[in-house]
Amino acid sequence: MVPVISQKTVIKHQKLAKKVASKAAVILKTIRNAHLKQVRKGDRIVTAEAVNLIIPDLI
Fold first, then answer.
1. pTM of the model
2. SS (H, E, C) the chain
3. Which of 19, 2, 22, 23 shows the shortest CA–CA distance to 11?
4. Taking CA 10 as the corner, what is the angle to CA 8 and CA 15, rounded to the nearest 5 degrees?
5. What contacts 16, CB < 8 A, 6 or more positions away?
6. Is the pLDDT of residue 47 over 80?
7. pLDDT in tens, 6-43
8. Greatest Cα-to-Cα distance within the chain, rounded to the nearest angstrom
9. pLDDT confidence bin for 56, thresholds 50/70/90
């Protein structure tokens, strides 16, 4: 015998799944943005070091 799931329970689980997916998307977006910021910061540091090697300080 197969148990019957009420429509109310199905809707409740769909809403819960939607919430979980939404939270996961926000977390992934936050992680990706944090990583991009670190990469950009690293690029700036590398560029600054390269400029200092090419054009040494004259002070």
1. 0.52
2. CCCCCCHHHHHHHHHHHHHHHHHHHHHHHHHHHHHHHHHHHHHHHHHHHHHHHHCCCCC
3. 19
4. 95
5. none
6. no
7. 999 999 999 999 999 889 888 888 888 877 777 777 77
8. 87
9. low
